[in-house]
TrEMBL record:
<dbReference type="GO" id="GO:0005789">
    <property type="term" value="C:endoplasmic reticulum membrane"/>
</dbReference>
<dbReference type="GO" id="GO:0005819">
    <property type="term" value="C:spindle"/>
</dbReference>
<dbReference type="InterPro" id="IPR009361">
    <property type="entry name" value="Zw10_N"/>
</dbReference>
<dbReference type="GO" id="GO:0015031">
    <property type="term" value="P:protein transport"/>
</dbReference>
<feature type="coiled-coil region">
    <location>
        <begin position="20"/>
        <end position="47"/>
    </location>
</feature>
<dbReference type="GO" id="GO:0051301">
    <property type="term" value="P:cell division"/>
</dbReference>
<dbReference type="InterPro" id="IPR055148">
    <property type="entry name" value="ZW10_C_2"/>
</dbReference>
<feature type="domain" description="Centromere/kinetochore protein zw10 N-terminal">
    <location>
        <begin position="1"/>
        <end position="83"/>
    </location>
</feature>
<protein>
    <recommendedName>
        <fullName>Centromere/kinetochore protein zw10 homolog</fullName>
    </recommendedName>
</protein>
<keyword id="KW-0472">Membrane</keyword>
<dbReference type="Pfam" id="PF20665">
    <property type="entry name" value="Zw10_middle"/>
</dbReference>
<keyword id="KW-0137">Centromere</keyword>
<dbReference type="Pfam" id="PF22766">
    <property type="entry name" value="ZW10_C2"/>
</dbReference>
<dbReference type="Pfam" id="PF06248">
    <property type="entry name" value="Zw10_N"/>
</dbReference>
<keyword id="KW-0653">Protein transport</keyword>
<feature type="domain" description="ZW10 C-terminal helical">
    <location>
        <begin position="582"/>
        <end position="736"/>
    </location>
</feature>
<dbReference type="GO" id="GO:1990423">
    <property type="term" value="C:RZZ complex"/>
</dbReference>
Length: 737
């Protein structure tokens, strides 16, 4: 059984083995065939394939070259066709078609020139031919433009006389009965647009239009446009009307300008054009739009600066009337937009007109500063007398319980009189809060009137104008501090009277600034009153510095004159005495001169203080010189006494603050009040005439009148100089301690 099983298994397995051996033999044969085929491909087919690829590449390159050549030839043919059609169109005066053919020729030539690798000479020749034809077309179009738009201008500038002789002729009126679907003007303009020349033509036309039509109509109110339409031409000329106002109203100017654009729109500007390089409806623009882009900025600036700026009101009461100008400006811009001259987003004129409050405030402030500066640079010596009886320039003030709204229904005047009512049962006299009697410059009084009137106007103005006007008044006073000292510097230094008037001017302004802000507190400006009060110290300092510098200069003059007195030494020498006497006379002459030029100018207390300061300088210098002497003879003492007596007798006479002589005696008697060294000087005179005992008695152990004016060392020095060295002198010196 086992053997049978093995035979059976072997019988089944043997065919499978045989089949597998047959397959192996078949695979070996196929492998040999593959090797033979691979060898054949490598040796024969690949070589043929390389040859085929090379041939294909060469054929492809050849095809590309042939395609380029064919394309170039086609473009050359198109160029030639376009050039021929352009020439034919020009002969037939079909300018739009001619221009389009030129554009096509230019495009074809650019295509030819864009192909590299061809060394063709023909493009250069074609470029030259195209340029010649293009210039020929532009020349013909230029002649046509000159036929359509004819300017007849006189030689010279665009003055009124020249403008009146100027004329603009538009030969764009279509003949009656002729088809106007495409008028000649449209063909010419479209051709110029296609060739890129329209911009230059419009620019030249716009410059002439501005110079000889638009600007003159704005600048010369007497100029009126005159239109005339004939069968084949429209004529625009001008005439000048006599008795015209210097400045024309914006409404009239707008009407004139609108008339010009209406006739231009009718006969020239209402031409739709296609912009080169664009397609569709969006590419169509009118000539008015193109001209507007060129002119509007310049035209609007001219209208603003030569017309609207002059119409800005000069007072706040005229602001209400300005609404007519705003409405007229709005209508003017609307008309220009309807004619497509102006784009919808352009509103420069209307914005300027609507901003009238700003322009009014600026104009008002400029006028105020200009007027104030003119007053500041006017002559200082033209004066007006200010007395306690003069106006205090205070409007009626409210009672403390009535709030912050004073009842001022009339302009403030510097000529009002009466008492200042404070709303209580009692009232202050008119002299209260008033400046002492003095003289101020008329220009400064007018300057304060200007300030008060401006503040009054601010009360009835808009909030913005009110702020600007109040700030302008503050600026006026700041400008005063800068301009007046510099502009009048030389005169203020040289002329004592002008220095005194300037001092009064500054005190006068400071006096008003103290209450100016309070008087107008109804303006509800938080910093207005404070700003005016803050300026008070500046004005007082300005006045005192100027007058103080003048006093110092006069002091130097006094000391220079006393320098020639030769220290008051050796007065027994006639020459020395004459020199000292001359110097005393010169000092008195100087003081009398100052007293005269300051008379009725300075306030009395300032006058007396100034003259007292100068006289005190002279007396102090004389006292110092005499007390410094080491030897004084008896004759010298007498002569020194006589010199001092001249000062004592004539010194008070320089105090003449008032014009009435009898009223000056009071101040001459009060000289010791204003001259600090007056008593000291008189004590010195007593010493010059006294004996030793009298000197000792006046010293009175350091308690007498002499001790109040001189120190012990000074008295001893005088005793040694006046008296010889004796026992009596030694005894007297011993008592001076």
């Amino acid at each position: 059984e086992i053997w049978n099983m093995m035979n059976n298994k072997y019988s089944e397995f043997l065919p499978s083995v045989q089949n597998r051996e047959d397959l192996v033999a078949e695979v070996e044969r196929l492998s040999v065939d593959i090797d033979l085929l691979r060898a054949a491909i490598e040796n024969e087919v690949q070589q043929d394939l390389k040859v085929a690829v090379t041939e294909f590449t060469e054929l492809k390159q050849q095809l590309e070259r042939d395609s380029v050549v064919l394309s170039v030839l086609k473009k050359l043919q198109e160029f030639d066709t376009a050039m021929k059609e352009c020439s034919a169109a020009l002969l037939e005066e079909k300018y739009t078609a001619a221009a389009r053919r030129l554009e096509e020729a230019r495009s074809s030539l650019r295509n030819v020139e864009s192909h590299g690798g061809f060394e063709l000479r023909i493009p250069r020749a074609l470029r030259k031919e195209l340029t010649v034809q293009e210039q020929n077309a532009i020349y013909q179009l230029g002649k046509e433009w000159q036929k359509l738009v004819v300017w007849k201008l006189p030689k010279g500038s665009s003055s009124l006389e020249a403008v009146v002789l100027s004329e603009l002729h538009l030969h764009t009126v279509p003949p009656p009965g002729e088809d106007t679907a495409v008028p000649p003007v449209a063909a010419v303009l479209q051709a110029l647009a296609v060739l890129g020349e329209l911009h230059y033509k419009l620019k030249d036309f716009g410059q002439l239009l501005m110079e000889y039509i638009l600007k003159p109509l704005i600048s010369y109110p007497s100029l009126e446009p005159v239109t005339e339409e004939q069968p084949d031409v429209f004529i625009l000329r001008f005439r000048s009307q006599e008795l015209a106002l210097d400045e024309s109203s914006p409404m009239k100017v707008f009407d004139k300008i609108k008339l010009i654009f209406e006739v231009l729109h009718k006969y020239l500007l209402n031409v739709p054009l296609e912009e080169p390089g664009k397609g569709g409806k969006d590419s169509r623009v009118t000539l008015a739009e193109l001209l507007g882009e060129l002119l509007w900025e310049e035209l609007s600036n001219c209208l603003i600066h030569s017309c609207l700026v002059h119409s800005v009101p000069n007072s706040s009461s005229q602001l209400e009337q300005y609404k007519e100008v705003i409405e007229s400006t709005k209508e003017f811009e609307k008309a220009l937009k309807e004619m497509q001259f102006l784009k919808q987003d352009k509103t420069a004129l209307l914005q300027y007109a609507c901003n009238v409050n700003f322009h009014f405030a600026n104009k008002k402030c400029q006028d105020l500063i200009k007027a104030a500066r003119k007053l500041m640079t006017s002559e200082i010596h033209n004066t007006v007398k200010i007395t306690p009886d003069s106006s205090t320039a205070l409007p009626e003030l409210p009672s403390p319980a009535s709030g912050d709204h004073p009842k001022t229904h009339r302009p403030c005047s510097l000529l009002d009189s009466g008492t200042v009512n404070l709303g209580s049962e009692s009232s202050l006299s008119q002299s209260t809060l008033s400046l002492p009697a003095c003289r101020i410059s008329c220009s400064v009084q007018q300057l304060m009137e200007l300030a008060y009137n401006t503040m009054e106007e601010a009360k009835t103005s808009t909030k913005f104008c009110c702020l600007q006007l109040c700030s302008c008044v503050q600026d006026i006073f700041y400008v005063f501090c800068e301009v007046v000292p510099k502009y009048h510097r030389e005169n203020l230094q040289k002329l004592p009277q002008l220095a005194a008037i300037h001092y009064n001017n500054c005190m006068y302004i400071a006096h008003h600034l103290l209450t100016l802000g309070h008087q107008f507190r109804c303006l509800a400006l938080s910093d207005c009153g404070g700003a005016f009060v803050d300026a008070v110290p500046d004005f007082k300092k300005l006045g005192m510095e100027c007058f103080g510098a003048q006093i110092q200069m006069q002091k130097r003059g006094v000391l220079d004159r006393l320098w020639t007195a030769r220290n008051f030494s050796n007065m027994d020498d006639d020459e020395n005495y004459r020199a000292a006497n001359k110097s005393i006379k010169q000092v008195l002459h100087q003081l009398k001169g100052l007293g005269t030029v300051w008379q009725d100018v300075l306030p009395v207390h300032v006058y007396c203080k100034a003259m007292g300061t100068l006289l005190n300088t002279a007396l102090a210098e004389i006292v110092t010189r005499i007390t410094a002497l080491e030897d004084i003879s008896a004759e010298g003492a007498d002569r020194l006494y006589s010199l001092c007596k001249v000062m004592v007798d004539e010194g008070p006479q320089v105090f003449t603050p008032l014009l009435e002589e009898d009223k000056n005696k009071r101040y001459q008697e009060e000289v010791p009040v204003f001259v600090q060294k007056w008593v000291t000087f008189k004590e010195l005179m007593i010493i010059l005439r006294a004996n030793l005992q009298e000197i000792v008695d006046r010293w009175a152990d350091g308690k007498g009148p002499l001790a109040e004016q001189f120190s012990a060392a000074e008295v001893k020095s005088l005793i040694r100089a006046l008296f010889q060295n004796t026992e009596r002198r030694a005894a007297a010196l011993a008592k001076i301690k």
